[in-house]
Amino acid sequence: MLDIQKLKRARADLVEEMRNLLASVETREGKQLTDDERSKLAKFQKDADNITADIARAEFLNKEESRDSEEPQDKRNAQENFGEFLTDVRQGNHSRLEARDVTMGDGPSAGFIVPDQFDQTIREIAPDQAVVRPRSLVMPAGTPPDAALNMVALDQGADRGVYSGVTVNWVDEVGTNQDAGDPKVKQIKLEPQQVSGYIDVSDKLLRNSAAAGAMVERMLRGAITGSEEDAFFNGDGVGKPLGILSSDACINVQRTTASNITYEDLVAMFPLTMGTNLAWVGNRTILPELMTMVATGTNTLAWQPSARDGAPSTLLGLPLLENPYSPVLGTRGDLALVDLNHYAIKDGSPLALFMDPFTQKLNNITRIYAFWNVDGQSMLYSSMLKPDGVTRVSPFVVLDDPA
């Protein structure tokens, strides 16, 4: 290791020699340097420049060594990209990996947890890539991550209304206060369920870690988004989230004509909604119905009056979201008017991967298994009775089959 202080002293000595040489020239008549003096001065300057470069190099190395010693060990061992993580899993570099427990107790380990920076990238979903998750109440994993979360909510179903069974009375100055009753509550239980899937990747591609990382990351994002969105919308709640269409909070509006969507259907759905972030959600197969929809009692197109213009992004002034996991045209739920702020999602254990190089070994293919945990359901148990005592409203209004 170079001694920086010793180098600095040597450079100072060279600078002093240069000063002395130039000072002696100043006392001489004509003040001209001889050829020998010019050679000495050039050598002094070259030596000083070399020492300056040595000092800069030594200071840089000291700074890097100091940074390495201060940086946490886990950060120094962190993978720079998702492809490096796949390589570590494939090669079994356990010192750079964190094993995942499949069960909450002392169950066997299977797979390795995807580092936070890659997990967040893979599961980061923009509103235009999914419908439910980006617009719902999402609760992060706690400790332990897969433990059930019980939320207390007012039971506003049946005839209890917005005040959950509490009666409000006006009392005059000499009147008697009456028992207003206790609010009725229910528990909403969110318990993350395990989801698993796999991707087959050629061994040749896996040897190119950067390319494999980019491809597998994109495929995982699509698989996770698709499986979750399907469950959040259609799930039956058995070992998976309870989807919106399976919620008892739904209000079903019977359509006017089988396999069609009419302007009258939209009008019938609109007043039954509640919430401040309403949006229409529908399968792409409903677009021809909307494009050819006419206003009641006229032949005027109600939604897309001109073939020159693109399809509108709103319906009755509210956003229209295309959802590939909504039922097809003519099926209950092909069109829904929802406020997804009333749907809760609970994340569990983070994404983990396990590589199986044996099942498809003869085909030179490695099977990559992915595991993660999640749950979701409506934050309401039923539709709500408005103060008028007649009208029921819900954040989930669904177009149903005809009567």
Number of domains: 2
Q: Which secondary-structure class do the elements indicate?
A: alpha+beta
Poorly predicted runs are 103-109
> Largest sheet at a glance?
7 strands, mixed
Shape: elongated
Mean pLDDT: 84
Rg: 35 Å
Describe this structure as you would to a colleague.
By secondary structure, this protein is α+β, with helices and mostly antiparallel strands. It folds into 2 domains: 4-70; 79-167 and 198-403. It has helices spanning 4-26, 35-70, 73-76, 82-91, 116-123, 203-207, 209-234, 263-269, 287-291, and strands spanning 99-101, 109-113, 137-139, 149-154, 185-190, 193-202, 251-254, 278-282, 314-315, 318-322, 335-339, 343-347, 352-356, 365-378, 384-385, 392-393, 396-400. Strand 1 (99-101) and strand 2 form a beta hairpin. Helix 1 (4-26) packs antiparallel against helix 2 (35-70) and helix 4 crosses helix 7 (209-234). The chain is elongated. The chain starts with a helix and ends with a strand.
